[in-house]
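ok so for the tutorial part 2 we go from a plain amino acid sequence to predicted structure tokens. step 1 is just haveing the sequence, like this:
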Amino acid sequence: MQVLPALVTGGVERGAVDVATAIVKAGWRAVVVSQGGPMVRELERAGASHIELPVATKNPFAMRANVARLADAIRATGADLVHARSRAPAWSARSAARRMRVPFMTTFHGTYNFGNPFKRYYNSIMAKGVRVVAISQFIARHAIEHYGASPAIVRVIHRGVDLAKFDPARVSVERQVKLAREWRLPDGLPVVMLPGRLTRWKGQTLLIDAVAKLGRRDMALLLVGADQGRTAYRAELEKRVRARGLEGIVRVVDHCADMPAAYMLADVVVSASTDPEAFGRVVAEAQAMGRPVVAPDHGAAPEILIEGATGWSFAAGKVDALADALSRALNLPEAARHALSAQAIAHVRENFAKERMCKATLDVYEEVLREAHPEVWT
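step 2 — the prediction. this is what the tokens look like for a chain of 378 residues:
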């Protein structure tokens, strides 16, 4: 039984659905508990069961009430293992699992803010499973150093890329042309792309300044992502573009529903996050599409790219360092670009495929169940 707040969108939700699908394919029963959302339909099409409970709440009284609800769900479904993917539901799920005497484990998806002792205690539930899955080596270190997770119980399982979707061979020219026209991209100029919602820590201002530092006019910069109501930040970006004299170069476009085609339009894909990324989906997806990547040297990004072979890292938050890395990527000779593309695709297929993530997660499930019920597994 996987427990998470809702099934709307995002890496946590995608991971839960992918793993539930793999559980069903393995012949096991998959149950997901959440507050619901549009991804429930996908989950049920895969043959998994969904139980709708108000587990997204952070109200202490409601969280306590959820203990009994989750215990009832464990009893009704015969769940042998409870896997929590978020903090609020994890507190209720651990108590329910204890009540029903089934193992409890977690996936540590982020660094979380721990500016005060209460917040640190609230976050600590994610390090209290019999196994703690960390989505990167960076997160594993964080869980061990800041929350006292025992290295013996931590298992690193990187997020998985859907290679049926992020495959250059499956992206038609028509899809690329449609996007290029929609975004009014000039013909024949290199394209630098930063995918990510418009929020300050994603580093759009840093990239704008780095492109200005390059002093090139023969390129296009695409900032791909919705502002999600942050209209003031969007206006700030547009003002910065004008102040740097980049009006004809930078385009701030909205959310893109066809990211594989978007990656195919890019000559360089940038992650410029000023805060460390727990994983860095953009870095993995761009490589899966054979694109050179430029990413900061903190968080999980250094784990995902091969320095100088599939991309380049830069000193996080430093305009000059980002400009230098961009220059290297943009000036890559054609033969070297083809070699990089092939290596990047192979690297992601070998190390970051969705199937690999799912298999590794099921291996941890089996490990926990063998430990809890040795008489069944011998």
